[in-house]
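Crash report, auto-generated. Payload:
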Amino acid sequence: MRLSKAYLPVLKESPADAQIVSHKLMLRAGLVRQTAAGIYAWLPLGFRVLKKIEQIVREEQDRAGAIEMLMPTIQSADLWRESGRYDAYGPEMLRIKDRHDREMLYGPTNEEMLTALVRDDMKSYRDLPRTLYHIQWKFRDEVRPRFGVMRGREFLMKDAYSFDVDEAGARHSYNMQLLAYLRTFKRLGIQAVPMKAATGPIGGDLSHEFIVLAPTGESKVFYDAAFEAIDLDRAGLDYGDKAGLQAMFDEVSSTYAATDETHDEARWSEVAEERRRTGRGIEVGHIFSFGDKYSKAMGLKVTGPDGGMVTPMMGSYGVGVSRLVGAIIEASHDDNGIVWPDAVAPWKVGIVTMRQDDDASAGAAEKIHAALHDAGVEVLYDDRDERGGAKLAGMDLMGLPWQVIIGPRGLASGVVELKNRRTGDREELSIESALTRLSA
Amino acid sequence: MRLSKAYLPVLKESPADAQIVSHKLMLRAGLVRQTAAGIYAWLPLGFRVLKKIEQIVREEQDRAGAIEMLMPTIQSADLWRESGRYDAYGPEMLRIKDRHDREMLYGPTNEEMLTALVRDDMKSYRDLPRTLYHIQWKFRDEVRPRFGVMRGREFLMKDAYSFDVDEAGARHSYNMQLLAYLRTFKRLGIQAVPMKAATGPIGGDLSHEFIVLAPTGESKVFYDAAFEAIDLDRAGLDYGDKAGLQAMFDEVSSTYAATDETHDEARWSEVAEERRRTGRGIEVGHIFSFGDKYSKAMGLKVTGPDGGMVTPMMGSYGVGVSRLVGAIIEASHDDNGIVWPDAVAPWKVGIVTMRQDDDASAGAAEKIHAALHDAGVEVLYDDRDERGGAKLAGMDLMGLPWQVIIGPRGLASGVVELKNRRTGDREELSIESALTRLSA
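Recovered output after restart:
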């Protein structure tokens, strides 16, 4: 991609109304633009990152055996009356009347809708277990939207729902999602600690939040430093290995970690003082096991192995896909801008000519651009006739992992500069060596 | 994918309330399920097809130089007051009040929002031309939703918007999208004829609809049979070739084709009688060139090459992505079910065991399933312990291009059956030959 043909608007000034660093950087680097209170358009730079995160979430759900589908954004109020949540949900639910005065709503979550869908199809214990998921826009009418996409009103979420015939099955489904989440966050390049959590309006008695540590976090968190040593995502663990998954769950559960909502001073005091860690964190995922709360209220029943009717046990599992863009930036930035983890970077490499009007520089840049493109490396070439310093600052702000910097002097001695955005290390090397390094 | 672990519910009975064949088949084969009037959930089978169509649309937009982004579904009413369309739009717009009583709406289209976004960034003629697009859910509150996803209320649409400094540029942007559409529909495996169309509430004086011919179409269409001979998508044509694109436009325009909205009896009478074709058609895309209608109303201006201010010329370009699922079925089905074009089939191959309890059959199926999976061929294996006939009927209904049918008798003589869904041709061949054929 050539910057001169792209739509990558960068703001010169830091936006005054943004309070946290991810919000500031997302506006300045042109990832998003607010179109109404708490509602954002995703400009091409932000869109690319959002799609990469979405795809990693999808791949790890698929690997865990969850099945993708897609539910609509607008729901009938009647569905929510069946579960009793229509009146309970409060003003965060965006309520709508259509042209025939029917009561509708913009879905904040989908327990009701999916339970209603599967009750037409799941008739026997042989139709279970199943975990279904979708990645869809949702709406919560926050009274005071703030912090950009971290607490916006319209947001992209992956939500999965599991259906099992018994408690043991439901526990295994929960553990599979727990592992899928650990793997997802690791691939995204962030450390997210699972913490026992309150279940709130979703219900149930077992729940974990996944918290990214960041000084700007919304919750206070308390955890045992032993967490840092646990191999949370267990490289060799197979999703079919029920005992192995339960052992992982037990280890996660027996190591203290909690948000202020569930913090237990008695258990905390048992953690050795030198291992107690406190800080602030951002919730990026939340999983729930809530038994038959929705299946019972909505009449989902299947025949059991012995011929009697069984009410399936359910769980639900959310990841804030759009929120993750902000959370990753909170966890990975410096004074010059965003520092993307490789897996979610909008492009891997940025090419900068210090003097676009120097024919040798432009020629070298074209050559590198074409070679990387042909090698399947995602590359953004700043081919604009701007000051080199401004172009470098723009690349730093946008946070691509690598910069190839091309200047007339270096070229005269046969080298370009390769800069690592995270470390700031710069190295002079030949074009061929740079290409080899970046194509690896 | 194993059917025993999937969520692919098939209805035994033809749904009584569905009037057209695509709606019937989408419900019966389990592509979608209605969740409220004119609102559908996409079950895994339908979701896979929807994503394939979306990806082809995306790739052809990218190839034409359009840049992807994503705008939100909920918009502020104030945006639409700027263009004057808030009052003009009528009851098809889903109007919403949020908790602070602010007037919002669920976007039916995005001319206003994108014009407002780019006016902050596009300052000079050097920032143009640009064509931006997104693929996002939209809502039109149809008074009487019907025909399933063909005339639903919540629908997925690709909409692109072009910005140019002058009329010649705008014409070229229009021609690029025209070619991208022809290429998109060809890749999707359907013939869509561009027809001069009325511009309606979008405005402007140049517009084409893309119509798929089908007896259940909503519009009457009239066209010159010469259309069938034109090489519409011009294999070698490059998007930078302005004269070549204009020649394509001229040839398309000079061959008569119109819907009843724009039908011109005088011009029609000039078409040789034996070349006159009439029928019914389904609109799957609509492109518009509307000059400065929105840019002028909303104050989008850039400095021109001579320093004066210029109001950019715009166009907008829509493809009904979810509607295409229905339109493709209307154009490609038989008495037994759907016949997917290869490019959009949910899986390329279905494996059916006639007797799942026969160990040799199950073993052969496992082997074929694994080999195709490893070869990167998308495959669905019906491993359920059901009657062979019912399983074959299910595969026909779901419309996968190829079926591998495995029975004890054939296996005894070393063969399986390979069935082409479209032609119905069946052929006995060895497992190795079948694998070679299907991996090609």
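Post-recovery validation: The domain at 3-338 of chain B is CATH 3.30.930.10 (BirA Bifunctional Protein; domain 2).
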